């Protein structure tokens, strides 16, 4: 029993750790995909939770039924034609770009808080990522089992402090009257959930080879989705209450805690960096496993090649990369999710 619960916890931690990367942990991702749409963004967060659980269930069933070992195999399974090949190519590209975004985020974090050149943060992240990735699947599970509980503690503490200091100024009417810049909140929520789902599939599909119990996998995903929804809710709430000031910063969450004292700021700084790190590891792991399988390049060599490719891309800048790449990746991911649902419905007998 204890072993089963621990396995479920590990799966949920990897789920949260994979998705909570540079953009979400810093507040930049939540700002662009939710906060900018005002109070309706809270509905969008719950829609994301439903998509995470539903599509993960489909991916688990397809992966176990067809004995899949990488996201490339999943993409080709649901669409073996030209569109499937394009989706596979673009997914790999965006995962490498995602790794670059996280490197850029690490650089932005070091630069904004310590005033050091961004390249210092990029190099530090690259070296530690390489060390963990050389441990393979065990490295991913180990780091997320530590990082995710720490994330929950820190964000919840900040949220409680924020609500306490806000006094009686927080009301539903106040939140509804806060001006917002965008209106297509539903589309934004679906796009956001889509690229997170396909990103996590890069880890989830290989996991089905190591964790044979589908129930453990699915319960772990549900728990992870609930935790992630709670985190997004708290972050979005604090960001909305700080409109329009948050739009000025690459790391808006650091702005929110600037009045809470140095200890809280340092705790947040550390947890943001660690969450960037956990997602960096997951992204590069996913692509490396696919390269190992499809190109017969040893896993460890693939890890090094991807890092060497991501470092120059990261020089574009953190905020710029999120603005340019995440929406495009979301569209591709949404198409992939629709393909998964259609394929699953047509082949549901085998996939159960």
Characteristics of this structure?
80% helix
Write the layout of secondary structure elements.
Layout: H1 2-19, H2 22-26, H3 28-33, H4 41-65, H5 71-78, H6 82-114, H7 118-133, H8 137-166, H9 172-176, H10 185-210, H11 214-240, H12 252-256, H13 262-295, H14 299-313, H15 318-346
Characterization of the model:
This protein is an all-alpha fold and 352 residues long. It has helices spanning 2-19, 22-26, 28-33, 41-65, 71-78, 82-114, 118-133, 137-166, 172-176, 185-210, 214-240, 252-256, 262-295, 299-313, 318-346. The protein is globular. The protein is 80% helix and 0% strand. The two termini are 25 Å apart. It is built from 15 helices and no strands.
Overall number of strands: 0
Content-based structural category = mainly alpha
Radius of gyration: 19 Å
Q: If you average the pLDDT, what whole number results? A: 82
How much of the sequence lies in strands comes to under 5%
Distance between the termini: 25 Å
- Give the SSE string: HHHHHHHHHHHHHHH
Low-confidence runs of at least 5 consecutive residues = none
Tell me the major beta sheet. none
Helix content: over 70%
**Shape designation:** globular
Oligomer: single chain
What is the tally of helical segments?
A: 15
């Amino acid at each position: 029993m204890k072993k089963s619960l621990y396995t479920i916890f590990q799966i949920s931690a990897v789920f949260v750790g994979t998705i909570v990367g540079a953009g979400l942990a810093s507040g930049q991702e939540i700002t662009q995909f939710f906060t900018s749409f005002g109070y309706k963004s809270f509905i969008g967060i719950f829609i994301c939770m439903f998509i995470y659980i539903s599509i993960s269930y489909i991916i688990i069933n397809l992966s176990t039924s067809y004995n899949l070992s990488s996201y490339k195999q999943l993409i080709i399974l649901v669409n073996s034609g030209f569109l499937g090949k394009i989706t596979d190519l673009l997914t790999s590209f965006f995962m490498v770009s995602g790794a670059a975004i996280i490197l850029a985020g690490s650089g932005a974090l070091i630069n904004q808080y310590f005033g050091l050149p961004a390249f210092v943060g990029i190099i530090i992240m690259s070296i530690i990522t390489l060390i963990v990735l050389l441990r393979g699947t065990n490295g991913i599970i180990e780091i997320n089992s530590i990082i995710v509980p720490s994330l929950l503690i820190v964000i919840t503490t900040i949220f409680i402090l924020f609500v306490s200091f806000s006094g009686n100024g927080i009301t539903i009417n106040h939140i509804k009257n806060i001006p917002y810049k965008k209106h297509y909140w539903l589309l934004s929520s679906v796009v956001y959930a889509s690229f997170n789902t396909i990103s996590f599939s890069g880890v989830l599909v290989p996991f089905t080879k190591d964790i044979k119990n589908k129930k453990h996998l699915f319960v772990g995903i549900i728990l992870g989705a609930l935790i992630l929804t709670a985190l997004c809710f708290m972050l979005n709430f604090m960001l909305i209450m700080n409109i329009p000031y948050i739009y000025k910063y690459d790391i808006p969450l650091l702005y929110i805690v600037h009045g809470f004292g140095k200890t809280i700021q340092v705790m947040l700084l550390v947890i943001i960096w660690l969450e960037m790190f956990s997602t960096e590891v997951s992204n590069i792991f996913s692509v490396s496993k696919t390269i190992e399988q499809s190109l017969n390049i040893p896993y460890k060599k693939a890890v090094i090649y991807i890092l060497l490719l991501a470092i120059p891309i990261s020089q574009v800048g953190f905020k710029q990369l999120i603005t340019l790449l995440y929406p495009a990746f979301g569209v591709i991911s949404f198409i992939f999710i629709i393909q998964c649902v259609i394929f699953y419905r047509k082949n549901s007998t085998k996939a159960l």
